[in-house]
Design a protein that fits this description.
Length: 496
Amino acid sequence: MSTLAKAAANSLANTIRRLNIKETGLLRSSAYIGGQWVDAADGRTFPVNEPATGQHIADVPNMTENEVKEAVKAAKAAQKSWAGRTAKERHDILNKWFALQIAHTEDIASILAAESGKPLPEAKGEVAYGASFIQWFAEEATRAYGDVIPQNVSNRRLVAIKQPVGVCSVLTPWNFPSAMLTRKAGAALAAGCTVVAKPAAETPLTTLALIHLANLAGVPAGVLNAVTCDNVNVTTVGKEMATNPDVAKVSFTGSTAVGKLLMSQASGTIKKISLELGGNAAFIVFDDADVDAAVAGCIASKFRNTGQTCVSVNRIYAQAGIHDQFVQKLAEKLKGLKVGIPTDPGVNVGPLISERGLAKVESHVEDAKKKGAKVVLGGKRHELQRTFYEPTLLADIIAKEETFGPVASVFKFSTEEEVIALANDVDFGLASYFYSRDIGRCWRVAEALEVGMVGINEGIISTAEAPFGGSGLGREGSKYGIDEYMHVKYLCFGGI
């Protein structure tokens, strides 16, 4: 072993001890291609650091489009064999993967919290949430039914069957590194597809830990691969994942700008594509709402993962009759949120993922102030410094852009018609929420909101059983999720 290799191994061992990881194989500093843990061909790496403390966690391979080609080649070689297994065989392997994730929740959560800055209880919740998609799609593998179609003439029989699309490129974001891999890869593997995954540069270690467990569960070599790279190489790596002629499907969660680029690149070879893009969720509180329940739902949605989720509340509308009461109660609850290091007891709000994320939050708050917003609470960096920001409440302002951070802005409205128009006046139709105890209003507003998902008297709505999406193309999770990784083939039997 070279001096550099020994130093890297010692650094990884120190991190394993510091994070108290019991299953040492879960913390990986190599990518995974064709059933082998590999480094970049040129030996280059990039660091993964804790946003909360700046401490170094590990160095992972800084790969290029060449490694993507190798991963796609491995995935293509494994795909027909994987698709040829019975649905029950795929179900059993996926169920083993699910069980291993649950068994190693503590260790995976420690890695996830360290690299993402997510409070440890939230990290544990994400691991369970992510694992639920593997369990769900294990069952869906055995229910990918086709149809027998009533024939048009008596001597024919018409049948539609579903088959896997083939090799899938999966590009996941940093804010839910466990759940975004499992929600995509679970459906793909259940369908009989193989996967090349590229985790975000900020949070690759959770993905690598999950792939280690997939290997232990019996997922065959080449079926699930991971290529890692930094935010410089991602341009060429992403392009290869979108344009490689052996890739049949691209699934991406992230910014709208990148989604548009990938869609354009994938169009050259007419690939199937799923995109879950930007969010700018409205949260509406009507006069007849249970205000306390609305406050609780708002905090759960807005401040989860320090406000860094695509379905986070971004624009809050409170009807005139309860506006002041809602703002007062929301401010009181926000005062009780504890900001701190993700592993500290009782922490509700961790750091933002990066200096860039912090700068965006600061610029949005300063812009709001200039435009007349009243700062009810917070409004500046937290005393912990680094990328910590105070839970912030602004009043008398409508947020036009998505603020990926712990900032809530409240605007007063008068009528149902007015607030529906305001809620729909955005480019992203991912999610919206509203609180009302009028059943007629619940149906009217839910149907009128131009989004893919609506929370009615509920602030946390995502679950494996329900379809997720609305701001891009396709749906993830639910019975619809597996269809994104399958083609429908029509069979016409003549001469009967």
